Fold:
Amino acid sequence: MKHIGTKELETERLILRKVRLEDADEAYKNWCSHDIVAKYVLWDTHKSVEETKELYKIWVEDYENLDTYRWIVELKSTHELVGTIDVASKRYLRFDVAEIGYCYGDAYWNKGYGTEALKRVIKYLFEEVGFEIIFAEHSTLNPGSGKVMQKSGMKYEGILKGRIIDKDGIRNDIASYSITKEEYFS
Ligand SMILES: CC(C)(COP(=O)(O)OP(=O)(O)OC[C@H]1O[C@@H](n2cnc3c(N)ncnc32)[C@H](O)[C@@H]1OP(=O)(O)O)[C@@H](O)C(=O)NCCC(=O)NCCS
Structure:
């Protein structure tokens, strides 16, 4: 498989494009500073916009590497920035396996954006990049994320016991979902 990097993608309602430094202010305002968004993820709520700017500087530089797959999600209608979706970890790339992560501002939840973006990213990673397996994991206390995975064609694989501690200090199980190339093209 040959990595080709983050290309701009489009869906009916969304543009998925590379993160820019100037996106940090809006990203901070719309999701990075919201405790409710960060409750079940592996990153902490940003305490200041400087934190978001620092992160986005690293992310922008990382686009030099063609094994970086990370999009900011923009609404076509208003150009509001609503969230991000990425191949969250590079540790399985050598096996042509992509681990997906995503987060969206709470003002934009339950409108189907998470599913619309994930479906498009799965299509890109299988049809244009050539991954073998795409997987994603979520806290069992965050079932909406599992719903996004299911609606995007991923299948439930199992539970990883007590793998994370949420922002209330509660240890959570993780549910793991995946879709293989064979399943996608069948
Ligand atoms: C989880 C998340 C990505 C979902 O994004 P979204 O844009 O709201 O997703 P969609 O609108 O495409 O689909 C959400 C589905 O979950 C369902 N849902 C939401 N909350 C739910 C809950 N508590 N229990 C069961 N289903 C739930 C919705 O009803 C919807 O399903 P439907 O279309 O059948 O009605 C979003 O809430 C988010 O970014 N959360 C914070 C960050 C995060 O948790 N990231 C994922 C870490 S694994």
